[in-house]
Design a protein that fits this description.
11 helices; 8-stranded mixed beta sheet; alpha+beta; binds flavin-adenine dinucleotide; FAD/NAD(P)-binding domain
Amino acid sequence: MKNIKYTVEVAIVGGGMIGAALACGLAKNGFQVALLEKKMPLLFDPNTHPNLRISAINSSSISFLRQLGVWQDVLMMRCAPYRRQEVWECQNTKLKFDSALVGLPELGYMVENHVLQHALWKKLCKENIYLLCPSLLQSMNRVNDHWNLFLDNGDRVEAKLIIGADGADSQVCKLAGIRKTGWFYQQSCMLISVHCEGEAGDIAWQQFTPRGPRAFLPLFGCWASLVWYDRPDWIQKLQSMSMLALTKEIHNTFPIQLGKVTPVMAASFSLSRKHVTSYTLPGLALAGDSAHTIHPLAGQGVNLGYRDAMVLISVLSKARENMTKWFHRDVLQGYQYQRESDNRMMQNGMDLLYYVFNKKSIPIKVLRNIGLLITEHSMWLKRKTLSYMLGI
Ligand SMILES: Cc1cc2nc3c(=O)[nH]c(=O)nc-3n(C[C@H](O)[C@H](O)[C@H](O)COP(=O)(O)OP(=O)(O)OC[C@H]3O[C@@H](n4cnc5c(N)ncnc54)[C@H](O)[C@@H]3O)c2cc1C
């Protein structure tokens, strides 16, 4: 069979939650787009158990998804609003956030990653773009003012701009020779899908312990997701247990608020903080996890990726309207300028929580609980913290 050469303005590598949103937004703004994705996305079946990979989607991301015309579809498939969030270490120093505090009907929605990706792909199928899937990026080179991308099936894509949205292990980032700085945390996490005795409700909570947080994220109906952060060797041990043994460990370890649950599925993840030394090269930009990864304890990864996507779409569209060379490095630098410090600040915020709550020293324990109490009793501080986390 003859190999095909596609000529487009923008080639996006990675059709996950961020790459697919970028493709929708750029196509909507009149760019000719090709999206390369190595795996066919999972189909949505309303009769299945919830998938393990879920994300807490905040207000700012929801507005973006609404603008792209996909949020309605997510609502119609499967997701669950959460209206309150509680955080504590000791039962008497609880910090409680309520959506009413910022005048919103909910703080956000718990959405399965594949539901979000499915809604975006449904939209993409209606746009005039090349959806190249399954296709794996193997190599790339820059010739004059454009990039050539070589795919595993022998096809080639020629584009003025490549966007790497291919996740934490980004091939685009590696092939472009962009370095990352950061580390792996001495903590891993286990995601556990559980069936509760009653409705999961609309309160997400997290208890900090010296070994790591234990979180409860309510999904639809009686379904919820538990997030168990602990030492990597302990998480590995949990992973090898039978469901019966895991159930016992959950009830021994999680706080009383949990009630009786039945775990159905579990998987573990290593956790890293990484940040690229540059978001751009001439004719190339990185977005989402390919540019930065963050400790997931406050569920901010996808939300930061959506902020990247919003800014990148806006910077490119404005430059094109102004008849400037929108794929040039100085335009792309505008994107990096707007996103780098915000992403770094959120990474630092998560690290602060990680280190402060990991310390076993009694004075630090006292101080962090005083911190929780002060925040709980200061409406101003609570509102500020909440607005920042919700991206509003
Ligand atoms: C345990 C855990 C819990 C989390 N919880 C939350 C949460 O509650 N809220 C939140 O906001 N974030 C959360 N995150 C973070 C979130 O999952 C990531 O930020 C998000 O998945 C990043 O999306 P992405 O599209 O950038 O990358 P990915 O989701 O990794 O998607 C990358 C895509 O690129 C494709 N790809 C890769 N390489 C190639 C290639 N060479 N050629 C073609 N295609 C390729 C992949 O198949 C994939 O589809 C969590 C992360 C973890 C680990």
